[in-house]
Amino acid sequence: MLIRNGHEQPLIPRYFDLLVFLIERRGEAVHRRDIFDRIWSDVVVSDSALSQAIRTIRRVLGDDSREPRFVRTVSRHGYRFVFADVVEEDDEAEWKVAEASSSGCGEAAAAGEPYEALLQRVTLVAASASDEEDQREAAELLHALGTSEALRRLGTRPRHAFARALLRDTRWYAAEAGPVPILGQPAPLATSRELVTIRLHRAAAVAAARWAGASIGGGLAGLLGGVVGGLVLMAAPGSVASLAVVPVLAVIGGCCGAAGGAGVGAGLSVAESIVRSGRALALLCGAALGGSAAGFAAQWVGRWSLAALVGIKVDIGGGLEGLAIGGAAGLGYAIATSHAEGGLAAPRGRRRLAASSVIAGFCGLAALALALAGRPLVGGTIHLIAEASAGSQATLTPLGRLIGEPDFSRLTAAVIAMGEGSLFGFGLALGLMRRRVRG
Fold it and tell me: How open is the CA angle 427-337-425, to the nearest 5 degrees?
């Protein structure tokens, strides 16, 4: 507990952990990188999340950033706990915590002055990043005074939708905050739009990095799958494929994997950035929509290219397959990272490998279901194109013989598709959850 003048001071767990961490290392300036690695070890957050945490701690301690008594900013490095008279005692004795006094805030609230001044701050148009942080501080102070009363006084004044969205966003970081409903309140659509804008703005850099990582991970998985598939095809009984088929399949696999990873990764990153409640459903829908968009794009490009360049018309899929694989990846990701709070999930070490394996399993099962339903993925589509092209070396019929079948049957397609889906899901997850190195 954090107790000040006999009264417990509420802090959300991560902020409390940060305060304890700074006190434990009070003899040194703690680098921002070390703080992120310790306090946000299982998630990725923007740099502004640390600034907000320090600001909240200072407010609770009654500290001033210009003349700090407790937490000092070390320029271009991090923060240091500077209060000299720290006394460590055993926890055997019980602390006496006084009843929360409502006289200070209550009288101020009755007068209405603190509310009005803060409401004016949160409804202004921010002209700089400093103004944005000032507005977030004002929103946290409104939560401390009383969320419901702040919402009542907010009413429908100009920019009330933005202010309501800001209060909704900051309630996750203010331990004193009450509920901030959107449905059934004034301008729910405008408030939702403002909330999405706020969260995307703060998480844009992190989300973009994760999107790029997912695309790279999916591309590398596709590249690896193409190389392995080409080598196996060359070694299969009765195959006429030469070594030249390996780089061709690798390029096709890499391009398809990168496109799919970009679509699914974008859907996951955006959904996780803007949604706090109903996370699992949002991740499933976001990944499915992203995968579907990438699939439809690949489907259109593939059909157009074949018809225009070589005059071949093949019923290439993409949209439905992307929807299914993306939805499976989103569901697997939601289950594997259900413990993550306060940022974008980024487990480390074995937990990252375990989460990636879960996502790979879900993608593999979705690919298996698609193949059994007659909806081939990359390998099956390559076989269809090869069958329609005279003299192609990429026909996958020899692969059927490896599992005891005379031809490229639905069982062969299912085995190949399940391998494709699992490999894609694993590469996607590893790239998506990779933590960037902070300077």
Answer: 20
- The C-alpha atoms of residue 298 and residue 321 are separated, in whole angstroms, by 11
Residues 382, 417: contact at Cβ < 8 Å? no
pTM: 0.86
pLDDT in tens, 414-433: 888 999 999 999 999 999 99
What pLDDT does 266 receive?
95
What residue spans of 310-377 are helical by DSSP H?
319-336, 349-372
The helix or strand, by DSSP H or E, that contains position 3, with its residue range, turns out to be strand 3-4
Q: Angle of helix 32-39 relative to helix 13-24, nearest 10 degrees?
A: 130
CB neighbour class for 365 (10 Å; exposed up to 12, middle 13-18, buried from 19): middle
Phi, psi of 240 (to 5 degrees): -110, 10
Which conformational region is residue 430 in: left (phi greater than 0), alpha (psi within -120 to 50 degrees), or beta? alpha
Find out whether 178 and 148 touch, Cβ atoms under 8 Å: yes
Buried b (16+ CB within 10 A) or exposed e, 142-170: bbbbbbeebbebbeeeeebbbbbbbbbbb
For each of the domains in the chain, give its residue range(s) and CATH number, in order of start: 13-81 (1.10.10.10), 112-186 (no CATH), 203-432 (no CATH)
Amino acid at residue number 64: D
Q: d(Cα 231, Cα 233) in Å, to the nearest integer?
A: 5
**pLDDT tens digit string along 92-101?**
666 666 655 4
CA nearest 352: which of 341, 364, 360? 360
Sheet holding 71-74, edge to edge: 30-31, 78-81, 71-74
Q: Is 187 exposed, middle or buried (0-12, 13-18, 19+ CB in 10 A)?
A: middle
